[in-house]
Batch of 4 targets.
Target 1
Amino acid sequence: MKPLIAIPACTKSLNRHLQHATPARYAAAIVGGAGGIPVLIPPMAETMLPLLDRIDGLLLSGSPSNVEPTRYGEIRDLTPDCHDPARDATTLPLLRAAIDRGLPLLAICRGIQELNVAFGGTLHQQVHTMPGRLPHDPPAEDAVEVQYQPRHTVRLAGGLAALLGATAITVNSLHQQAIDRLAPGLIAEAWAEDGTIEAVRVEAAATFAYGVQWHPEWRVTEFPDRLALFQAFGAACEAHARTRIVPQPESAACQPPPSARTRSTAAR
C-alpha cells in the first residue's frame, strides 16, 4: 500500500472564480521521488484537521503568497497584495496537529516559513532587501527553467547533512520571506552564505520532520540531494502507512461473506 501524502492547496482566482490549486510538480515529486499517492487538502481552515487521521504524510508546498505578518505579531505589512489568509488558517493548525500525531512532514519554501510561524517564530518579510543578504527572490528572467537554476550554496549540519550525505549543496532560491527569529523546538540545519536559515528540523518530532527554503521538488530525480530528501520522506510515510492500515488476519480474509455461508448451509 503506497502512502497517502497530502498537500494543502492555495487559493487562486481563475476567471473570477476561486480555485484550490498547487503547482503540479509537487504531486509529481511525491509520485516519482517519495513513492506516494498525492492528495490535495482544500484551504478550509480547521475543518481539515480530521483528514490527518487518514493520511501518512504532509507536504507543504511553496507559493507566490506570503504568510500574513499578523500571524507572527508584526504590524507592518510590506507585501499587502501577496497573502493567502485561507491557506494560513489551514496550514498553521495542520502543522501543529501533524507533529502531535507523529506524521512525517516536509515543508518547502513557504512551508518552512509556515512551520516557523506555527511554532512561534518570526519572519523577515523581504530578506533580499536587507543589507548584506543575497538576492534570494526570483530572478527577473521570466523563463521558469532559468528561475529554478541553482543559485547559491548552503552549508548543512546535523541530521540533514547525514541524510543528504554532504556538508554543502547548491540550491535554487525563489523567496521573499525567510526565518528571522527561529521558533522554539526547531533546530537549524542549513544556512546560506549570508547567514539566512535554509533548513530546519522539528526537534521533538517522532519521525521525519524537516523544512527547507529551497525547491527540491524541481526536477527531483535529476539531483541526488533532492531525490535523497524525497526518498527519506517517502520512507517515513511508508512506515507510517504500515501502522495506520491494520492488515486483516489471513484466516478472516479467506472466509466467504456471511450471506454466502448462509446460502451454502440452506442448500445442504
Note: The first strand starts at residue 4 and ends at 8.
Target 2
Amino acid sequence: MSISNRFGKFFNKIADKDRSVRIARAGKRTFYFVVIGIIAGLGSIVFHYLCQVGLHFFLDFLAGYRPPSPMGEHQLFPPTFTPFNRWILLFLPACGGLISGWLVYTYAPEAEGHGTDAAIDAYHRKGGFIRSRVPIIKTIASAITLTTGGSGGREGPIAQIGAGFGSFLATRLKLSDRERRVMMAAGIGAGVGSIFRAPLAGALFAAEVLYRDPEFESEVIIPSGISSVVAYCLFCLVFGWGSLFESPDFHFHNPLELGPYVVLAFTLVVTGVFYIKMFYGITGLFKSIKIPSHIKPAIGGLCTGIIGFFLPQTLAFGYGYVQQAIFNDLTIPFLLFLALGKVFTTSFSIGSGGSGGVFGPSIVIGGAIGGVVGKVFHQIIPRVVTEPGAFVVVGMAGFFTAVSNTPISTIIFVSEMTNSYHLLLPSLLVCSVSYLAAQKWTIYQQQVKNKIDSPAHTGEFFVDVLQTIRVKNLLHLVKKAILIPQDMRFHDFKTFFSKTKEHYFPVMDYNGKLSGIFSSNDVRAVLFSQEIGQLVVMKDICTSEIIVTTPSDDLNSVLQKFTTKNIDSLPVVEDDDPGSLIGMLNRREVIAFYNQKIQEMKNKVKQ
C-alpha cells in the first residue's frame, strides 16, 4: 500500500470520527429540545385545564357570567344555571388579585406582571437563569388572576413555564450560559406555540421578541421550532386539532382596499400607544403607592371589577368576542367599548402586579379596533370593503405589532390562529406600517434595540469586531523603534536607556534582522550594577522567543498575544520576513482604536 493511500485512510478515519462526534452532539441537543417541548406541552395542558376549571367555578358558578369561547376551543364543563350577578363580578377580580398577589410576592416576586418581559430580561441579562419555583407560582397565580375576571393573556404564564423548565434543565446539566439562553428561548416558543396552536409563530416569536429592531436571534429559531412542534402536538392530542379561531375564507381581491387598511394601521398605532402609555402609567402609579405589594393586585382587581360591572365583556380572556367579530356579529359601539375597556382592565389587572400576559388582550383590542374600522368603511364604500371580518383578522396582527415590535412572527401568529392565509398581503402592509410608526414604543420594556446592545452578545460582538480589523489598519499607530545591536555592551545601553522613554527594546543581529527583545523590567534589577557593565552584551539579556504580529493579523489574535505573557507592546514584522521589523504596537492604542470603531458603529446605528 502506498504512503498516500495510508494517509488517505488515516484522514478518513479522523473525518469519520469528527462526523460521529457532531452527529452525537446534534442528537443530544435535539433530545434536550424534545424534552423541553414535552414539558412545555404538559405545562400548556395543565394551565389550560386550570383556566377551564377556574372559569367554570368563578365566573359561571359564582357570577353566572358565561363569556363566549372561540370556535376552536371547546368548553370542558357544561354551563351551570346560576343567574347573572353583576355584584359578584364587581368584587371577584379583587378576591383573585388578593390571592394571586399573596402567592406571588410571598414565594416568587419576579413572577408578577406579564411573564414574557421577565423571560426577555433573563435572556439578555441573567444568562438565561430563571428560578425553578417561578413557573409553578406563575401558573397558579395567573390561573387565579385570569379566571376570577382579571384581564390578561395566556402567553405570559406559559412562556415563563416553558422558559423556566428550559433554564432548569440547562442548569442541572451544567451547560454554558449560551446554551441555557437557547434552551430557555426554546421553552418560550414551545409554550406560546402550543397554547395558541401556532407552532411556527411560536418559534419565530421566541427569536424575534428579544429585540426592538426587526432582528431575529438566529440560534434560537431551530431549537424553538423543534420544541414548539412537540408541545403543539402534545397539546392538540389532548384538546383537539385545528386553529384557535375559525374564520370565513377571506380573500384579498381589490387593491383599492389597501387605502382603508392603511387607515386601519394608523388607527392601531394610536390605540397601541395609548395602551402602552396607560399600561405603564398605571404600573408606575401602583409602584409609587406605599402599601404592601401583595395588596396592590387586589386594588387593581377592584378597579377591573368596577369596569367589568358595566362592561363584563372586558373581563377575563375575551377571545370569544373576537370570534364573533370575525363573523361580523357585533356592533360598532360594542366593539369600541370592548377595545377601550380592555385597555383599562388589562392595565389594572396586570399593571397592579397581577399575573398574566399582554398578547391575549392585544389580540382582542386589535380585533375590536379592526372590526370598527372595517364596519365603518363597509358602510361608506361597501363595494371596496366587502368583508369587515377581514379587518378583524388584520387588526389583530397590526395592533400587536404596534405594541411589541414583532411584525413577522405576529403575521404568522394571526394566520395560524385564524387559519386565514389569504390575508397575508394586507397583513404585511398593516404590520409594516404599524411597526414603522410605533417603533419607539413597546409593551416589552426589557427588549433591547439589537444584538449590539444585548449583554448576552457583548463578548461575541467584541470578538466579531476585532476579527474584522487588521493590524495594517493601525500602521499609522505603529511606532518606529530603534534596534539595539546584539553586541552592544550593557554599559553603553545604560547611557541610551537614560535618554529614552521606551519600555521595550528590539535587538538586531549582524544582518540588521530582529533576533530578540527585552523590556525595561528585564534590566531593572541589574541597571546599577557597576561590575557587569563591560562584561555583558545585550544578546545575553534579550530573549530570542519573540511574540510578534504582522499586518495581516486581526486584532483578536493581537489581543490574545498581548495577554499571553501580559505584555504591553508587540513588534510588528513583515508578513513574508519575520526578521524585518516595521515598528512597535502598543496595547493601549489597540484598545483605543477598538473603542473608536465601536462608537462609530453605534453612531451609524442611531442615524
Note: The chain has a mean pLDDT of 86.
Target 3
Amino acid sequence: MWNIVNMDWLTNVFITHSPLQAVIVLAVIIAVGLGLGKIQVFGISLGVTWVFFAGILAGHLGLSIDNAMLEYAESFGLVLFVYELGLKVGPGFFSSFRKGGVKLNLLGLATVLVGTGLAVGLSYLIKIPMQDMVGIISGATTNTPSLGAAQQALNQVGISANGAALSCAVTYPLGVVGVILAIVVMRKCFVRPRDIRTKDSEDENQTFIATFRVKNPGIFGKTVEEIAKVSKTPFVISRLWHGGDVMIPTSTSVIHEGDRMMIITTEREVDALTAFFGEHESRDWNTGNIDWNKIDSSLTSRHIVISKPEINGHKLGSLKLRNNYGINITRVSRSGVSLLATPGLLLQLGDRLTVVGKEKQIEEVARVLGNTEAKLKDPNLAVIFIGMVLGLLLGSIPIVIPGISVPVKLGLAGGPIVVGILLGRFGPYLHLVTYTTRSANLMLRGIGLSLYLACLGLDAGAHFVETILRGDGVVWIGSGFMITVIPVLIVGILAMRFWKLDFGSTCGMACGAMANPMALNYANETLPGDVAAVSYATVYPMAMFSRVVIAQLLVILFL
C-alpha cells in the first residue's frame, strides 16, 4: 500500500500536469544545468548554457509540462533577461553608440547578411527546401522571433510551418555552442594582447587624472571661470596648489604662473590640456592604489552615494554643492563607468560621487545626498514591471514595410531591450528610479535566462534524438553549424584586423548579431568589464529586427 501511495505521489509531482509539477520540473532542470555549468573542459565552461541541454535531456526522457505554462515561463524568462540587460547597459549605451555604434551595427549587419547568403547558397547546393532552411537559420542564430515571423509567413502562403520548428530545434544547440566555439577559436588563434581591453578606462566616458603646472602666459591672472570659457576641453579642477598652500578652487579663484592643478578629464584630452596649461607632470594618478587622503593633510577625499530619491534626475550644478559647502566633486561613478562631474551631468539614484574638501563639509554633503547604501539594496520592482509592460507593448506594434505583406514586430526580445536601454539612460529625466544593485541585476538576468533556456530545451527535447537520427536531421545540423560559425569568424577577424575593434567589442557584436545571450554570458565571464554587454546591446536591436524581416523575405521570395 505504501509503495502504491509513493508511486502516485511521484507521478503527481513529476508527471501529471499542474502548476506544482511545472515549477518542480523547471526547477530541477535549472538546478541540474547550473550544476553541470560549473564543469570546465580544457579551461572552458558553457555555464548557464547547460540548462538548455538539461532541458533537452528531460524532454527526451519524456518529461513535459502544460503547453500554456511552458510558453508563459519561456516568454517571461526571455523578457526579464533582455529588459534587465537593457537597464544595465542603458547608461553607457548612447555614448558607446556615438563612439563606435555605427561601425558595430554595420559589422553586425554584415554578419547577418553573410549568414543569409550562406543559407541561400546551401539551400540550392544541398537541396534543402526554404521552408526548412528558415528554421535552420533561426536555430543557427538562436533567434526565436525570426522563427515566429517565418512561421507566420509560411502559414499565410499555405505551407506547413512544422518543418521550420523542427529544423530550428535540432540546430539550436549547436547554434548556442557554435558562437562560443568561434569566440574561443578567435581568441586562441587571432587575438593579440592589445585587442583585449583590460580596464574600463579605455571607454570614452572614463575619467583620467593628471596634474599640470601653469606655464601659459595667456591664462596668468585669469579666474577659473574665465579659463573654463576659453578652453574648449571639458575638465574639473580637483585641487589647486599655490605656493605651499592647497585649496579647493571656486569659479573666482585666480590662476597664477607656476600653480599646480590636479585635473579630472578624459585621457584623449590630456594633450590638448597640456598645450593649454603649459606642462603635464609625469606622475601617474590612475593606478588605483593611491591614498588620496595622504596627498595633503588639509583635504579629504571620500565617496558618497546618492540614496535620496528626490535627487534622482537633478543636474549636478543645480545642487550648488561647491558654493554652499566649499567642496569639489571630481568624479561620478555609474554602473562601473567613471563620468566627468560637469555641472550639466544628470544625476541618478545609486551614483557614487568622489568629493574632495574638509571633513566637516563632506559630512554635510553626505547628509544632503543620503549616503545610505542600505536604501539601495531593494530594487524598485514597480519600475521593472512597468518597463516590461512598455517593452511588450512596443514589441507588439506591427511595422509595415512596403513590399512585405506581413507586418514585422520587435517581438518579446526586441521591445523590452529597447525600453530597458531607454529607461536606463533617460529614466531620471522622468524621475523614474531605475537603479538596481549589480547583484540584483545579475540575479534577475540569471533567473530570466535560466527559465528561458529550460523551457526551450524541454520543448525541443521530445523529438530531438529522433530528428537527429534521420538523414535530414544530420544535414540540417551540419548546415546550421556552418551558418553559425563561418559568419562570426569571417566578420570577427576582419573587424579586429581592418577596423581595429577590440576583442570584447567583437564578441559582443557577434553575440548581438547572432541573438545569442548564452554566448554573451560566456564572454562576460571570461572578459573584463562590460564592453561586450554594451556592444551586444548596441547591435542586438538592429540585428534582431533585420533577421525578422529577412526570415519573412526568404519565405516570400523563394516559395
Note: DSSP finds 19 helices and nine strands in the chain.
Target 4
Amino acid sequence: MAYLRRKTRRKDGRLYESWAIVESVRTARGPRQRTVATVGKAPGLDGQERLGWEQIAEELSGRPAVAGQQRDLFSPPPPEPPQWAHVDLSRTRVERLRRFGDVYLAQALWKRLRLDEFFARNMAPGREDVPWPTMAALHAIARLCEPSSDTAVAESFFGKTALDDLLGLPPDKVYDNRLYRALDVMLPHREALFSHLRDVYGELFSAKFDVLLYDITSTYFEGQARGNAKAKRGYSRDSRPDCEQVTIGLVVTPEQLPLAYEVFDGNRNDATTLSEIFDLMEQRYGKSRRTWVLDRGFVSEDNLAELRRRGALYIVGTPRSALKKCERELLDAENWSQVAPGVEARLVTLPPGTDSEGADDPGARETYLLCRSRARIEKDRAIVQKAAGRLRDGLLKLKDQIDRGYQRDRARAERRIGRLLEKHQRASRLYTAALTERDDPEHPGKRRLHMELTENSQAAEWTALQNGCYLLRTNLAGQEPAKLWRTYIGLTEAESAFRALKSPLGLRPIYHQKTHRADAHILTCFLALAMRRTLSLWMKESGLGTAPDKLLAEMKEIRSLDVILATGEAKELRLRLVGTPEPGTRDLLHALRLRLPNRPKIIPNVVPTQTVQKT
C-alpha cells in the first residue's frame, strides 16, 4: 500500500518541506517503508498546497475525511477533460458578487451537528416546492450570520449571499410567507431536537451530562403581543419594564453547550421554574444522580428539598445576608486555600439551625464553601462607593430642602428616603436618616420638620469586609474546595450563553405577536446558539482561540462571483467561482481543515433577481 508522508528539515534558518510517496514492503526485519518518489520540495509550502497534499495523503491511506471538511461545491467528483474556447478579453466582466465564506462556514456547522440529517429524517416531504429541511437550514444560517427579521432575510440577506448555490434554493422561492410557514413546521420537532443534540455533543466533544447548569433570562416584545398568552410584564433583565415579555430557562453543559430550554410566562418567578425543568430533564434522560448548579435566585428550602427528594446533588449560591454568619471566618487570615489565580476558598461550619446537618436523609447534610476573589473585591468596592456617593448626595439634597423650609410634609419626605434607599441598596446600611419634628423658632407655637443624617461606621467596616466574598451551599460530600468552586463558576458559561443569545443572535426583541411564532423564533435562536458554541469549540481544538464573531467577520470577506467571458462565437460564457482568500484567511481555513471550492462551474446566463411579490 502506498502512503504520502510529509518531511521537514531546517537549513540556514529556513524550513524546507517535501512530500514523499512511500510503500510498505516486507523485509527480514519486519515491515518497512520504501521511498518511491519525493515531490513538492519547496521552502515552506503555503496553506493551500499543504492542504492539497494532505488530501492526497488521506486518499492514498484510505482514511476518511476529517469532520467539517466538505466536498467541492462546484466541481463534479470525476475530473472533466479540459474545455477550450477563444475569449475576447476586452469584453470580460465580473457580476454577481456574493457573500460566501460566512454562510459556507455556517453550513459546515449545520452539517457538523448533523442537523441536515435530523430535519430530513423528521420533516416528511409533502407537496411543498422547497423542502422544509432546506428552509430550516436557511433560518439557522441567517440567524447565525446576520440576525434580522424574516422579511429582511427574504428581501436583503438571501440575495447578498451564495446560499442559492449552497442550498440549491432559487431566489424566487424565498419570501417571508414561506419563511413563516417553515417556522410552524420546525416547532413541533423541538423535543426531538434536544435529544439529537445530546447525542451529537457526546460524539463530537465527549460531553458528559452528569453536571448541568441552569439559569433564566427574559426577552421583551415590540408591540402588545395580545396573541401570546405567555406575554406578561415582569422583572425585566433588559431594562424594559414597559414591554410585555417572556421568561426563558436554559440548561447548558459545563462546556457551555446548550442542551434544552423552556419558555415561561413573563411574570414567572425564577424559583418556581425549577420543578418543570427537573421534570423535563428526567423525562428526556431518565432519573440519575446528576449535579445541578444554580444561582442564588433559585435558592429556597422547598427547591432544595425537592432536589434531595429526586436524589439529585446541587451546588447553589446563597443570599449575601448569609455572609453575616461567616464573619469570624472572614476575619481569619489563615485556613484559606487558593482555588484559582486571585481566588481563595475555605470550608466553613455554620451555626446550628443554619444547615440541615443531622437530618435522616444523607443528601441533606450540607457543606458550605466561603469564597473570596481579589478582582471581585475591587469591583464590589467600586459599586458600593458609587452607590454610597449617590445615596449621600440625595439625602443631603433632601436635608437641605428640609432645613430651608421647602420640604415640610413628613410623609412625603419619608417616601423620598425610602425610594433613595431602595434605589441604592448596596449602600443602604451606610447612612441613617432620622426625621423628627421640633419647635419652629421663627414661628412660635408651630412645629418644623428636622432631618438628622449619620454615617454608620460599623456597617461600613462590614461592607468592606464582605466585598468580593460569596458563600456556596452544596450536598456534595468529600469534595475539595477547588473542585467545588470550579463546578460552580461554570455558571458564568450559562450567563455567557444568554449574552450570545441576546446580542449576536438577536433574541431580543421579539416582533412576532402569536405564541407559536414567538416560540419558533426562540427555537431558531437556540439552533444558532448550538452552532455558535460548536464553532467556538472547533476553533479551540484548532488553536484559533474562542472568538466566533471575529472568525465569521473574517470569513465574510470571501466572495463568490461570476466571470463573464465573451467567446469567439459571439456568445458569453459564465463561470461561477469563489475568490481566493487572503493569506491570513487561508491560514484560518487550513487550521479548521475546511476546503473552499476551487474550480469554476460553467452555468447558463442568469436573469437578474427581481423583487418577489408578497402573497
Note: The CA atoms of residues 15 and 190 lie 52 Å apart.
